[in-house]
Amino acid sequence: MKPFDANGAFCPDVNDDDVRRLAIRGAGVTVFSGGFLLVIQIVATMILARLLRPADFGLVTMVTTLSLLLLNFGLNGFTEAIIQREEINRFLVSNLFWVNTGAGLVLSVGFAAAGSIIARFYHEPLVAGIAVAISTTIFTTSISVQHLALLKRAMRFSATSINEIISRTLSLAISIILAWAGWGYWALVVGAVAQPLAQSIGVFFLCPWLPSLPRRAAGTASMMRFAMSIYGRFTVSYFSRNTDNLLVGWRFGSISLGFYKKAYDLFALSAGQLTAPLTNVAVAALSRFNPRSTQYKQHLLGSLSVMAFVGMGLSAGFALTGQDMIRLLLGPGWESAGRIFTFFAPGIGIMLIYYMHSWIHLSIGRADRWLVWGFVEVIVTCLLFLLALRWGPAGIAAAWTASFWVLTIPALWYAGRPIDLGIASVLASLWKYVVASLVAGLASAGISREIPSLLATPGSAQVALLRIVEMSVLFGTLYLTAVVLLHRGYTPLYQIAGLLREMISRRRLSIPSPSPALFVTSDADTPGPPVTKSASPKPLVSILIPAFNAQKWITDTLRSAISQTWEPKEIIVVDDGSTDRTLEIARMFEPDGVRVVTQKNQGAAAARNSAFSLSRGDYIQWLDADDLLAPDKIARQMEMFDKCQSKRTVLSSAFARFRYRYYRAEFIPTVLWCDLSPVEWLLRKMGQNVYMQTATWLVSREVTEAAGPWDTTLLGDDDGEYFCRVLLASDGVRFVPGANVYYRAPWGDTLSHVGRSDRKLEAHWRSMQLHINHLRSLEESQRVRAACLAYLQSCFVYFYPEMPDIVNEVQKAAMEMGGQLELPRLSWKYSWIQRIFGLGLAKRLQNFVQQIRWRVEIYWDKALFRIQNRSLPPEL
């Protein structure tokens, strides 16, 4: 890879459209390579454990516990600085190269000189010579840090993964050969020296770039500060992660440390092979999104769910099979490591989740907050180590597990505060997997007591392997079953399957010429979150959804809201005391950035008012829980706002009615589908008895607040009355063609939809009165009175003859406006019944027949929908 062009600018940048696919492919490569490395490491461990003594491993661990801190100077810090920064050039990276290499040389010499001091600390003379040899790894690692970071910035994760596999395999092969030749602990030392040397050679081959001489370059200081914050965080974390080795080696000696280290390796490797490489992929991908956007939170919470699914399964599975795994891998004589590992196992899954808080800190450019949290981490972890030291290595292992369970939720909460990441959505992404693993693990342990072959008795490696297979199958079956039951469906399994398909996809990806990234790193003295290049950020749109007993439709509605191409947006669902599964289904979308709240049943108007009170958007999109929006509905209307440049203008759009087959909906224009003044719009609505569906509107917050809340006393036509007030507060309506809404038609005609209950009829009459008052407040003229009379006449049939009091009021209102209402007449099909039996019976018969016709049409449409078996098409 050629990292820089002729002008020194970084050139292999990635098209933003390919970020998600590259991230998933990169995650797939790193996970699979990590799994491959884990297998190689396990095989090598099996061999080395049979060729070397526990004390040999303990001696090398005493040194590497300290050397790894210095080896990671630059590797943790400069790597993230290069990946995260928006614009880099060869002069910036060259400066970092010389700083990194110079520091590596100094630290390497210093560590070699300190070998005797380390030996005195452990009371082990052999450690001094090991320290001199291991010191070379610090320098050989430092010379390739920038090259490796450039490859990762270009998202060349396949190349870096292959290089790591080759170098690690070579290192392990050397250790095995020398151990077989009788070199003892020196076999491990030579292998440790060979690994970074081989990796550096491979990185130079993949990225054959030579640094220029140091020079002044804008941004060097800010990148150094960012890198030092990262390394400072790593240092703090390192002490919390390695104090255990120091305590065990100092207190219990090299043999106990050897047992402890092998148990820890199985614990750390199972998670480390996932977390370390995935962090680079995740930071590279998340850094391209606005941290406050729905996209950012969707990707983050989705990743959290996947990690929880995998991690919780690993935790319980290893807890059940850990001792047999140690027996199988290390052979006889390592039983103490098996007992220690059983205390590590419950922390594997939560450790995977815990490390994700670093993704947030790094991707939003807040290494300073990550450093602050590191002090909390080291204090809590070291206190737990000291408390558990009296119980020996097993107690230290239990302290590890406890530290992750104590720190995870606070860590994610703290990391997410700058971007308003709600902890409720985090918990919603996790708890079902925790419960599933606990239930499946306890059930597996109980069942195993009844199966003789699963009883935990000592045996050969073959017996241990048989128990591992049988227990894994039993637990895996129970765990997947519990996940499906808790989610009430196979959605998590489909998500994992979909990710796996994308990970192994061979579809070609476009990597074009340099294109502007989304964020820049601040050059201020204090590192801050990344900021967008745009001088004026795009306005936030709130999509507000009241829901009551909408379990059949809420999924499609939320999908249509999530798929809106406009960013930024927020989606708020207020469940109005549903008695079905509406609330549960809505909460399944919380990982997708949907905010879900619930309240006692108070009606749709009250739910809408609650949703608005929770919203923060500059513009408001109302959406009923059974309707759908075209993906570009909001984006098209927001383009119109830019053109009209007035927040007092309200926007409407086209809508089509459907029952099940939304793709067959027909858009039939009415006289309202055009640009109109408020008075002209109301004249047409009332004079011709037409309407606009609720979701067609997009209104600024300014107009929404001026219009006032929804009227909770209106049981029907509350939307018609509300938007009258919206129009009164506006300076006109602009109709936006193509911003389509799909309206799930009510189950009946207008007459049946209004209802026959006294309360609904009284509420509808009140809404009519408010309509008339709103129009007359704009203009008092003959055309207004004519429109109001037409409105009264068209709605007269709702009340006559069942509601005589309202009938009298309607007739008085008509007389006040200088008109006289005619008695309602039904269509010719029912007019003869009206003449013989009266209007009341004719209306009831008409309603009955139409309900039957509608139900037949509904069932027919539903049957065709299921036969065609179509999912929501891309254009919806």
What are the defining features of this structure?
single chain, 876 residues, alpha/beta, 5-stranded mixed beta sheet, 3-stranded mixed beta sheet, elongated
H/I helix tally? 33
Could you tell me how far the N terminus lies from the C terminus, measured between alpha carbons in angstroms?
41 Å
Low-pLDDT residue spans: 505-536, 747-754, 870-876
- Name the structural class: alpha/beta
The best one-word shape is elongated
Average residue pLDDT: 79
Rg estimate, integer Å: 34 Å
Strand order of the largest sheet: 7-6-5-8-11
Number of strands: 12
Which percent band covers the strand fraction? 5-15%
- Largest beta sheet, briefly? 5 strands, mixed
- Helicity range: 55-70%
Written overview of the protein:
- The structure is a single chain.
- The protein is 64% helix and 7% strand.
- The protein is built from 33 helices and twelve strands.
- It has a five-stranded mixed β-sheet, sandwiched between helices.
Short description:
With 876 residues, this protein is of the alpha/beta class. The protein contains 33 helices and twelve strands.
